[in-house]
Amino acid sequence: MNNLNSLDLDFVRGQFPGLNNGWTLFDNAGGTQILARSVERMNDFLYNMNVQTGGSYDLSVKAAGALESGRQAMMHLTNASRPEEIAFASSSTVALQNLAKSMRSQFKPGDEVIVTVSDHESNVGPWTTLEEFGVTLKFWNIDPERLELSLDDLQSLLSDRTKLVAVTYVSNILGTINPIADIAKLVHSVEAKLCVDAVAFAPHRAIDVAALDVDYLVFSLYKVFGPHFAVLYGKYELLRELDNLYHYFYGKDKVPAKLEPGNASYELAYASTGIVDYLTELGEQVDGIGSTRDKIVRAFHQITLHENTIAEKLLAYLRARPDCRILGFENGSDERRVPTISFVVEGQDAGQIAKKIDAYNIAVRFGDFHARRLLEFLNLTDNGGCVRVSMAHYNTVGEVDALIGALEEVL
Question: pTM higher than 0.90, yes or no?
Answer without folding.
Answer: yes
